[in-house]
Amino acid sequence: MKSQAAPVTFLTRRWNLLRDLITQSLQITQTLPSHIPVTEQLRYRRQMLLQLILLVLGALLVLVLVGFAIEAIVQGVKLLAPPPPPQPGLPAGPPPPPPQFGPPPNGPPGAPPGPPPPASPLIPLEPVLFMILWLVLNSIAWNLNRRALTFIASVIYIYGLIVLGGIGLIWLSSIQPQPTAIVFSFVAIIFIVLTGLLLPPPFIWLSAALDTGFVVFASWLFPYNAPPFSSTPLFVAFFLIAAALTWIFVRVAGANLQSFTLLLERERELASLEEQFIISTNHELRTPIMAMYGSLELLQTFGANINAEQQNRLVDRGMRAGRVVQQLLNSLIDVTLTETSHMQLHMQPLNIRQQILSMLEFFDPQEIGESQMLSTLYKQRRIDIDIPAFLTVSADKQRFRQIVLNLLTNAMKYSEPGTNVEIMATISAQDRNVAEISVKDYGLGIPQDQVKFLYQRFSRLKRDIGGSVRGTGVGLYLAKLAVDAMGGQIWVTSSGIPGEGSTFHFTLPLSDEESSSLTITRPRKFARN
Amino acid sequence: MSTMRIVVVDDDPDLLGLLTDGLSLYGTYEIIPCLDGTSGLAMIEQHIPDCVIVDILMPGLDGYQFVAAMRGDPNTAQIPLVILSALVQEQDRIIGLLRGADAYLTKPIEFSSLVAAINSAVSLTREQRAQIFNQRADDLLPGEV
User: Fold this and answer.
1) Closest CA to B103 of B76, B132, B81
2) Which residues contact A170 (CB under 8 A, 6 or more apart)?
3) At CA A132, angle to CA A129 and CA A136, rounded to 5?
4) pLDDT value for A13
5) Of the partner residues A290, A291, A374, the one whose CB lies closest to the CB of residue B59
6) Which one in A87, A344, A375, A442 has a CA-CA gap of 20 to 30 Å to A179?
7) What is the pLDDT confidence band of residue B82, given thresholds at 50, 70 and 90?
8) CB within 8 Å of chain B, chain A residues 272-311
9) Is the peptide bond before B59 cis (omega within 30 degrees of 0)?
10) In this complex, is the C-beta atom of B22 within 8 Å of any C-beta atom belonging to chain A?
């Protein structure tokens, strides 16, 4: 870790980061994936353009600061050098005024000199202490990667900078001779630039550069004794305002940088998901296509030599395979249509118990494109139902079926044949106006760190990529879209321990109306055969 | 011509039915269909077939595990084995062949090609199989430095 703390390494890292950000933003701007809606693409492009401008401004500012530092050295050397001896023959006049930064001070050139300036105060200790504290905290934060500590350090830094700027310039305004002021400015510039460069995230680097720019610019623009900045309250007010503006500006730049980084991550995720989706879909399509193609091949080759029963079997098999392909394509089209247009909903009162019982009676995973789900996964499995008969929600019937079938199919796909699946419904404890429906299995469970990926389209868990459980990663994505559209929420609880399984919950608004009555004759618990 | 006994392992019932019907039409084959790897291994132990056709992505025991288990058992190690999978990536093919399959075919495939692959696998002698496997390992695995 210590070798990384070398300033050269830090500078190299900052430079690489800046270069990468600019390169990546340019690349992404040119090659935004076509599936991102046009409005989003425009937003991304604007965002990245702003980011580029900020980055370039930050880089320019550093160059300006370096220029100031060089000028400070030159001026300091000139002032500290002994004055040349007066040339003989020339009348001795008053010494030339010391050079200084920025425009000349206000006031008539020939005005009589004022009262002698007060004696130079001691070097202000308070800002120096702040800076040391900030440096220590920041170094610890950098090494430990603690964001909270970095934040505290940044707050102290900003406060220290205000005090340093205010007190420093008040001090400058009251001291003589000028060389001390120039040396002080030079040290302050170098100190602030270096500390700014040592900050961990790029936006703090920008922050330091901007803050420094304000201090230096102000000290250059408003000479030390020029009114109105010779007044202490005005000095302090000016720097408070400058610091506040800087802070706001830096926050905006920081937020942009963060969102830009998130955007890059998102793009990488999308690219990975698309690749994964292509592999999954390719696999899901090839098997039914072979069943279809093979049946036709056999009919073509042996059609005249096989009996009617064999012919019918081949035709049936080919038809079934065709339906499988169609269902798979339908689910993909469903995703596209749902994304590009509003989900069409026909809300109506639905009795949860009736709906789920009728669904189980004709349970067919093919309804949601799960054509290749092995029948042993859902037959001979006990499904426990715990749903009060009075619970009626307001929902779209087709979408409700789609959600429950997806959750139920997942529960069966990711648990061993023979283990129970439980379907429960109740009035939500948090909101008495909504019903909470849960599907619990005793399967593999879902690791906590992967829960966030569950509802992304085409997303599959790491363990399932290349695994034996098939899927395209659209089921939960569609389920979430449907639940959201109907005014509910969907979430999962799982310990991630195999055997303890997971429970998917979703809520839907309770309906005031009664759904059409249906005689329920099934027992509370039943087993499918 | 004697009947050739083939164990076919695939979790898709339709594909299993198609392979059973198709191979029966194409030659004098006796097909033993299995819907999962575990029952497939049991059938192989029980019947010692002339050839095995196996899918890769299956619930429970997958195709790779199936091939490894079969090749690891001295009783079944020399049985000709053809993988028929929907996985088309090169890495899948390499894994399948290195685990000991005689051929790696991808779905969809014409029956004539499948029959040719079966016949080719069946015709291999023990020595030829060992020689091909060793050559394959040299070709597919990175060389030693």
Assistant:
1) B81
2) A232, A235, A236
3) 140
4) 60
5) A374
6) A87
7) very high
8) 279, 282-284, 286-291, 293-295, 297-298, 301-302, 306, 310
9) no
10) yes
pTM summary value: 0.51
Token code pair at residue A209: 């550069």
Q: What is the rounded CA–CA span in Å between residue A450 and residue A473?
A: 14
Contact map slice: B 44-83 vs A, CB within 8 A: 57-60, 62
Per DSSP, the three-state class of A310 is helix
Q: Cβ(B126)–Cβ(B78) under 8 Å?
A: yes
- CB contact (8 A) between residue B58 and residue A306: no
Q: Looking at the predicted complex, does its ipTM rise above 0.90?
A: no
Confidence of residue B76 (pLDDT cuts 50, 70, 90): very high
Query: In the numeric block, which tokens belong to residue A502?
Result: 């997971």
- What's the pLDDT at B103? 94
Whether the CB of B12 is below 8 Å from some CB of chain A: the reply is yes
Tell me how far apart the alpha carbons of residues B96 and B105 are, in angstroms, rounded to a whole number: 10
φ/ψ of residue A517, rounded to 5: -75, 145
The encoded tokens of residue B94 equal 């390499």
Closest residue on chain B to A288 (Cα)? B15
Q: Are A225 and A105 in contact (CB under 8 A)?
A: yes
User: For position A292, what pLDDT does the model report?
Assistant: 92
Instruction: Please report residues of A whose CB lies closer than 8 A to that of B86.
Output: 282-284, 286-287, 290
Are A286 and B89 in contact (CB < 8 Å)? no
> What one-letter code names the amino acid at A486?
M
Using CA atoms in the order A389, A393, A397, A399, what is the torsion angle rounded to 10 degrees? -120
Give the residue with greater pLDDT, A349 vs B145. A349
Best CA proximity match to A267, nearest among A44, A43, A22: A44
Best probe of the A interface among B31, B35, B57, by most A CBs < 10 A, is B57
The contacts of residue A117 (CB under 8 Å, 6+ apart) are A174, A175, A176
**Residue A516: which residues within 8 A CB-CB, separation 6 or more?**
none
The CA-CA-CA angle for residues A162, A167, A168, to 5°, reads 95
Q: How many C-beta atoms lie closer than 10 Å to residue A113's C-beta?
A: 5
pLDDT of residue A462: 60
Where chain A has pLDDT below 50, the residues are 1-5, 90-128, 138-139, 141-151, 175-177, 196-203, 205, 221-232, 235, 371, 516-529
Task: Say what percent of chain B tops pLDDT 90.
Answer: 59
Rounded Cα gap, residues B1 and B47, in angstroms: 19
CA A216, distance to chain mean position in Å, is 35
The rounded distance, in Å, linking the Cα atoms of A335 and A476 is 11
Q: Is the pLDDT of residue B117 over 90?
A: yes
CB atoms within 10 A of CB A62: 20
Task: Give the Cα separation of A328 and A340 in Å (integer).
Answer: 19
Cα dihedral angle (B82, B88, B93, B99), rounded to 10 degrees?
-60
Q: Which positions in chain A touch B17 (Cβ < 8 Å)? A: 313, 317
